[in-house]
Amino acid sequence: MSELTKVGVLGRIDGFTNPESAEMLPDGETIVVSNAAITLVPSFRGGRGLTYRQGESYVSTVRSTGTGLEPVAERLIEGLTGTLGTDVLRQGTATYPAGTVFAASGGKPVTADGETVLPNGEEVRQQVLAYNPLTGEKLPPLPLWEGSVVAGAFNAFEQPNGLAVGLDGDVYVSDIPNTNPAGALPPPVDAAVYRIPHSSLDAIAAGDASAAGTIQRVVMMPGWVNGVTVSPVDGSVWAVSCEAQCPVGGGAYQLLPEDFASGKQPEPRFRDLGGPPGGFLDGISVTRRGSVVVSNPALAEIYVLRPDGTRTQLDFEGADAIGSPADINVCYPRALDGEPALLVPDVSARGGTHSLTLLDLSGH
User: Fold this and answer.
1) Are strands 50-53 and 38-40 parallel, antiparallel or unpaired?
2) DSSP3 helix / strand / coil % (the chain, rounded to 5)
3) Closest among 134, 194, 133 to 159, alpha carbons compared
4) What average pLDDT does this structure show over 201-217?
5) What is the maximum span of the chain, computed from C-alpha positions, in angstroms?
6) Residue 318's pLDDT is what?
7) What is the torsional sign of CA 243, 272, 286, 9?
């Protein structure tokens, strides 16, 4: 059992549309928010499977003022589909200046009318969206669709979901195959975490097939994979499972270079985080002190897993209306003078606040 730890609310802002992920820029103030625009389609999995509304997701920016959160650009970029995990590139390339934001985007299943699912995701392409977070200017995406360099190395993505940028600029993206009907196995493609090297970003964006051999992946089965993060302590990659029938009851996995070299999933570092109804985890992040933070949207719970093996559940006093904490991210606001905070988007897929909350993680 986990102990319960109260944490303060540093700010909260409402009015988003299924905010799934948020990330703070290096200035310690500006925050980008990925709004996923989710709906439940009656014809897909009996109305219980989540789908993305074509062209209705968008990117917002807000600011942490030290006394709260305030809007900057409500719709910095519009007309997107399924905008999910996001992170910031800190080492620039010829194509992507330092400060470029990457976001997983274009994942299936997609609906254009809210009643049916597009059978092949027509007019939507799986990709890593790239943009300037200050101006909203789109940069060339990293293609993940059929015919792309990444697809040539392995397969086209089904649903690019979690995304993280490594300490050396490598980009990690998780893929969760999600179009197969309820109970139908195997899934369309392997659930996996992919590593795209920083040195190959420009070539992959340009469609240079010679870069295919540089891409690696860890196949994450059994159990779908969702959020991905990189530890600021040692640069290792972390990911969580997100399936109600997960055999380890909700696991957090640490992926090392040798795991990407072999392509095989290691044993979970932490397990049984899901509780009833299973192992449906979403977000994961790591503090500079090495604490792993995991969100469970099904139970509206967030856990801190300490390096010494102990764990605690956060009691976010003053924010108890958070219904579905999604792709959480540890950040370091300028106003906290080096102490961590936690960005908590409430994806509100089945009810919630459609809010972004900033929690005080001081001491973690």
Assistant:
1) antiparallel
2) 10, 40, 50
3) 194
4) 98
5) 52
6) 64
7) positive
pLDDT tens digits, one per residue of 112-165? 999 998 876 567 899 999 999 999 999 999 999 999 999 999 999 999 999 999
Tokens 């970029």 map to which residue?
77
pLDDT tens-digit map of 248-273: 899 999 999 999 999 999 999 999 99
Tokens 């309820």 sit on residue: 182
Q: 3-state class of 63 per DSSP?
A: strand
In what side-by-side order are the strands of the sheet with 101-105? 86-88, 101-105, 127-131, 138-143
State whether residue 43 is helix, strand or coil: coil
pLDDT category of residue 222 using cuts at 50, 70 and 90: low
Q: Which two tokens stand for residue 314?
A: 């956060």
- Are 16 and 35 in contact by the 8 Å Cβ rule? The answer is yes
Could you identify the residue written with the tokens 């790239």? Answer: 130
Q: Is 205 helix (H, G, I), strand (E, B) or coil?
A: helix
Total residue length of the chain: 364
Q: Which residues pair with 216 in a beta bridge?
A: 195
Counting other chains too, the contacts that 184-187 makes at CB distance below 8 Å and 24 or more residues apart are: 187/158
Distance of alpha carbon 55 from alpha carbon 59, whole angstroms? 12
- Whole-model pTM? 0.96
